[in-house]
Design brief:
The complex is a heterodimer of chains A (501) and B (369). Chain A has helices spanning 45-52, 75-80, 98-103, 114-127, 143-156, 173-188, 200-206, 229-237, 298-306, 328-333, 343-347, 354-366, 374-387, 404-417, 434-449, 461-467, 490-498, and strands at 5-16, 19-30, 34-38, 60-65, 68-70, 83-86, 161-165, 192-196, 209-214, 217-223, 262-271, 278-283, 287-291, 311-318, 321-323, 336-339, 422-426, 453-457, 470-475, 478-484. Chain A is α/β, with parallel strands linked by helices and 501 residues long. Chain A is elongated and about 75 Å long. The chains are: A alpha/beta (501), B mainly alpha (369).
């Protein structure tokens, strides 16, 4: 290939207080290629992009653009050097026309020749085959077209490197297709495109090469044909295929009454959060889990079951009888508890005390006119602070001043207090210390052996293997498989996530 | 023994300074000391016979608890609205005017020409006013909660239109209601020397306290104000809670309107409860409550309301012309608000921590010596 290297980043180091976000990462982009930048959350993708676009200043390392070393201090400077970025969220002005958006703040001229501007815009749009009129107001265009306009604007500013940061996450399949056409179009013009996405299928559809990051380090740079999907997944997760032995302990299994009957069973459930309809069931005393890469739709599934997102179709049965879950309270009244993935925004009520945070769910179920007395609330709080070993100065301490792990325990206490029959734990171990992680996993197994059904979601596959007896595998927002019992191994999970046998 | 007492007083002091009620308390203390220095006679209470022939107590303190009543009642509702929605209702003065106008209309009968006594039932009049005001609150609340319009903007509608509606209800006639029984509400109960509005305000506070004790309103409004997402995932209906707080505030506006009409025996559409919304918002802020919503302290808010009235009375006693009153008030308000702002509080905390470290060092040195 005669394609020359257009952008080289060498030994990039970026540290934040307490975190080494990038530790000597190399990245190379060639002219006229689409290069996927892959990695799980916290791998350093966004940091690398932000260093490249001047949002962050690197601590060490060099950036070469067309063999000339450059230093970038701000996004404007990046722009001037021909490095443009299009983000997931549209950063254009919806109240202006397409043409205005294409040309606004582009040159120093104060007065614009509108006719000329519209004409030039029309030409540009046509050359990129973007199906929109230059005079159309941007807000009236579909998200995909808005994205394309953003790309057109970026490209037209003499762009050599185009960064697309999760451009497809809010698009439907058709819109993604159209975006790919545009990307290939640009590729043919010699633009180097850095493509950041969670969708494996899309990577294998359009990309030429892949760079994988993990924990702030470069894992490697691969030609797409040299890296099968399973390999990619294993590199992203940092597990070699045969590296992990099955470490399932001989936990106690619930064998009491109704051990074989479904507590919750859903059919063709679909919510507005953009997941394909899915089936799901859980038996009494069972621990199962949703697995898949970040953004694969595992959280959206459990949110649909709990009524956290608006459900558009499907049925939910509890103990064989159909129930209607329109809002979280309906789910709670049917004995479902839900610990959300985003602890800060969906879980804690920051300024309220630990005590109030513990009792709030049970209080809501108890009813508006039956508040707990101070003594009752105090009793509940003390009981669970002791039970879960929550480290807090007192039950009156605001929850936001606790450490992440203890905050998570408070939320867990909140749901245990409601004595649910079915408990959903979405990433209960994220961002907390190892000791607490183990505590929570043990607790889950203990609760299950006492007859509670638990759905456990974690990004760490080890944890899933340790706790779950059945895994539902998600990819690209749909259920793609189920793994049971003996089959739950690292290899099997990764190959199912990747979609290969 | 001595050290124990010292310790106790220390923890008490610590508790007090960490409580947000310290801000209005300090402001109150300042006003009291200021008046004591300026003119100790300010606090004098005289026993006089008023125009209706009752023996009543008269003095600045009495006028503070009298004229502060409407503000205190509205401040209760404003505190809830602020906590749940993170914004304020600026239409309550106009809503109170609507209440006043309805009461005047019903009391004076269909033709509106009954200068002598009441024709309609007072209870009926009040209930209709309550209904209208709660509906106004529901209108505001719906715009805020369901249509997600910022509270200031949503309530601007009634702020602008309310007084026109009030005057339209009575076809813009000047109404006067001369009736001894009706005047009791804004005046004095025969034989009791303390003004009636004060008792009404206290009654409102007691009812609020009971509501907070026997429902989960307090927990819900704070939870919704702090984290709406999380509240929803815990089964609370944040939209309804916001709506409810606006309706409660509407109820307060009806009571305030009733007191105001009874006080003067007339209904002045343009002037009734004018600008009281600003004072109510200020009272909430003075109480140390975050105007962005979340946790609230009702006692501190109510104290804040009376402090504002205290300030007004002080200025009047200093013979500041009533037209210049707002300007003087503004100066005091600036001082109070800046003093209670998070930035200053943080600085103060740092300062006190610094002093503590220094004294601790000194104590250490003394120990060495």
């Amino acid at each position: 290939m005669a394609n020359k290297e257009i952008l080289k980043m060498r030994n990039i180091v970026k540290t934040f207080p307490g975190v080494k976000a990038l530790q000597g990462v190399d990245f190379t982009l060639r002219e006229g290629e689409i290069h996927a930048l892959m990695g799980e959350n916290g791998a350093g993708k966004s940091t690398l992009i932000k260093v490249l676009t001047g949002v962050y200043e690197k601590n060490d390392g060099q950036i070469f653009l067309e063999d000339k070393e450059i230093t970038i201090h701000s996004p404007e400077e990046a722009q001037k050097n021909g490095i443009s970025t299009v983000y997931q969220e549209i950063t254009l002005c919806p109240n202006l026309s397409v043409a205005e958006n294409l040309f606004i703040a582009r040159d120093g001229k104060k007065i614009k020749n509108w006719k000329k501007m519209n004409k030039e815009s029309e030409k540009l749009l046509q050359s990129l085959s973007i199906p929109v009129k230059a005079t159309e107001q941007l807000a009236n265009c579909s998200i995909a077209v808005q994205q394309m306009v953003a790309i057109a604007r970026a490209v037209d500013m003499d762009c050599k490197v185009l960064i697309l940061d999760e451009p497809t996450s809010s698009l439907d399949d058709n819109e993604v297709e159209r975006l790919f056409v545009l990307m290939n179009n640009l590729k043919a013009r010699g633009v180097g495109i850095i493509f950041v996405t969670h969708f494996l299928d899309q990577v294998y559809r359009v990309c030429d090469r892949i760079t994988v990051l993990r924990d702030g380090k470069l894992v490697g740079e691969y030609e797409i044909k040299d890296l099968p999907r399973v390999q990619l997944v294993s590199k992203m997760l940092g597990k070699e295929m045969d590296d992990m032995a099955d470490i399932k302990s001989d936990e106690k299994v619930y064998t009491g009454e109704n051990a074989d009957s479904d507590v919750i069973a859903v059919e063709a459930l679909q919510s507005t959060a953009g997941i394909k309809p899915f089936d799901f069931n859980i038996k009494k005393g069972e621990v199962n889990g949703f697995t898949g890469l970040l953004g694969s739709g595992r959280s959206e599934c459990v949110r649909a079951i709990f009524g956290a997102d608006k459900v558009v179709q499907g049925t939910v049965k509890k103990d064989g009888k159909e129930i209607k879950i329109k809002k979280p309270l309906d789910a709670m009244k049917n004995g479902i508890g839900y610990l959300p993935e985003d602890r800060k925004n969906d879980g804690i009520v920051g300024d309220l005390s630990v005590k109030d945070n513990i009792i709030i769910a049970l209080q809501v179920m108890n009813g508006f006119f039956k508040p707990f007395s101070k003594a009752e609330a105090e009793k509940f709080a003390e009981e669970y602070i002791k039970l879960l070993n929550i480290k807090t100065a007192s039950s009156e301490t605001p929850i936001k001043s606790l450490s992440g792990g203890n905050q998570q325990k408070v939320i867990l206490a909140r749901w245990l207090l409601t004595h649910p029959q079915y408990l959903i734990l979405d990433e209960p171990t994220r961002g907390i210390d190892v000791g607490t992680k183990v505590d929570i996993q043990k607790l889950v197994l203990q609760l299950a052996s006492e007859g509670m059904s638990v759905t456990f979601i974690s990004s760490e596959i080890d944890e899933m293997i340790r706790t779950c007896s059945r895994l539902i595998v998600m990819r690209d927002r749909q259920k793609v498989g189920e793994i049971k019992g003996e089959d739950i191994t690292q290899n099997k999970i990764m190959s199912t996530i990747a979609g290969e046998n | 023994m001595k050290s124990k007492v010292l310790n106790n007083s220390k923890t008490f002091f610590k508790k007090l300074t960490s409580n947000q009620i310290i801000i209005p308390l300090l402001a109150l203390l300042f006003l009291i000391v200021f008046n004591l220095i300026r003119d100790p006679g300010f606090f004098e209470i005289k026993v006089v016979t008023n125009t209706s022939g009752h023996t009543v107590w008269n003095g600045n303190l009495m006028s503070i608890i009298d004229f502060g009543s409407e503000l205190a009642i509205l401040t209760i509702g404003m505190t809830f609205v602020t906590a749940a929605s993170g914004g304020q209702d600026i239409s309550i003065g106009a809503t109170a005017a609507i209440a006043g106008s309805i009461i005047a209309r019903i009391l004076t009968g269909a033709d509106g020409r009954a200068p002598q006594g009441m024709e309609g039932s007072l209870i009926l009049a009040f209930l209709v006013a309550v209904l209208a005001c709660v509906l106004c609150g529901a209108f505001n609340g719906t715009l805020v909660a369901y249509f997600k319009i910022p509270p200031m903007v949503a309530t601007l509608i009634l702020f602008t239109a309310g007084r026109s509606i009030a005057s339209w209800i009575n076809e813009n006639r000047n109404i006067s209601i001369v009736d001894d029984k009706f005047m009791i509400i804004g005046g004095f109960i025969p034989g009791i020397p303390i003004p009636t509005p004060f008792f009404i305000a206290v009654l409102c506070m007691i009812i609020t306290a009971l509501v907070l004790k026997f429902t989960t309103l307090g927990l819900y409004t704070q939870a919704v104000g702090i984290n709406e997402n999380s509240s929803r995932l815990n089964g609370i209906n944040p939209k309804f809670i916001k709506l409810l707080t606006f309706m409660i505030l509407g109820l307060g506006a009806a009571v305030a309107g009733l007191i105001k009409v009874s006080r003067t025996g007339t209904c002045n559409y343009a002037g009734l409860c004018k600008d009281i919304e600003m004072d109510a918002i200020l009272a909430v802020a003075l109480g140390g409550n975050a105007l962005g919503g979340g946790k609230f302290n009702l006692k501190a808010s109510i104290l804040g309301a009376y402090i504002i009235q205290f300030l007004t009375t002080t200025l009047l006693a200093m013979e500041v012309p009533s037209t210049a009153l707002p300007a003087y008030k503004a100066v005091v308000v600036i001082i109070l608000v800046v003093f209670s702002s998070p930035v200053v509080r943080e600085k103060m905390n740092k300062l006190s921590a610094y002093i503590k470290v220094k004294t601790a060092k000194n104590v250490g040195k003394e120990g060495e010596n």
